[in-house]
Amino acid sequence: MIVNVPGLRNSNEDHWQTHWERKYPGKFIRVEQSNWESPEKESWVTALQEQTLNLSDDDLVVVGHSVGCATIIHWLSEYKRKVKGALLVAPSDVDHPNYPEYIRGFAPMPLETIDTPTIVIASSNDHVVSVERATFFAESWGSKFVLFDNLGHLDDKSQLKSWQEGFSILQSLM
Questions:
Q1: How far is CA 105 from CA 32, 38, 95, 145, in A?
Q2: Which has fewest Cβ within 10 Å: 28, 59, 83, 140?
Q3: What is the DSSP string of 138-172?
């Protein structure tokens, strides 16, 4: 099973996470958060844990975008889950001094090595995380790092649609 963990404001109809869910029905489920506008670490991590409680870690792959990546990292750290894999796309730099105050509790970002195969994907011109920080996160977590050129925040504005390159990278975790 693949669990999508969207970021701030959820993933809309033009976001690659939504495209993947539509293109591969039955393979994906989405974590539903109670408040998409003001993410709060404790409730977001709890929602992920509750959504995955009855899923086998051996078959579970989680796919995060932006603050959804921070949710996954905190979840893996707090619950000591050892899932099949995690794809972390455009991870928010929750430790940045200008990080939005309405996204609460995600700092500091856990930086210990993750005991799960992980891949961090970043873009050279992402306004939410610099290449240097994304690289640092990948190195800290023991993740493979993939850099795309000039794809912004890798969100709906990037117009990736079903983003075949990203899906191919996801398949490498499966």
A1: 18, 11, 10, 26
A2: 59
A3: HHHHT-EEEEESS-TTSSGGGT-TT-HHHHHHHHH
Gap between the Cα atoms of 153 and 26, Å rounded: 27
Q: What is the pLDDT of residues 90-148, one digit of tens each?
A: 999 999 999 999 999 999 999 999 999 999 999 999 999 999 999 999 999 999 999 99
Q: Which residue has the tokens 């500091």?
A: 108
**Which structure tokens are listed for 134?**
């994304």
- Given CA atoms 143, 19, 2, 45 in this order, what sign does their dihedral have? positive
- Counting residues of the chain whose pLDDT is more than 90, the rounded percentage is 99
Element (H, E) at 48: helix 41-52
Over residues 48-60, the pLDDT tens digits come to 999 999 999 999 9
Residue among 11, 5, 18 at smallest CA distance from 71: 5
pTM above 0.70, yes or no: yes
How is residue 94 written in tokens?
């929750």
Helix, strand, coil shares of the chain, percent, nearest 5, are 35, 15, 50
**Domain boundaries of the chain, sorted by first residue:** 2-172
Strand partners, 120: 88, 145
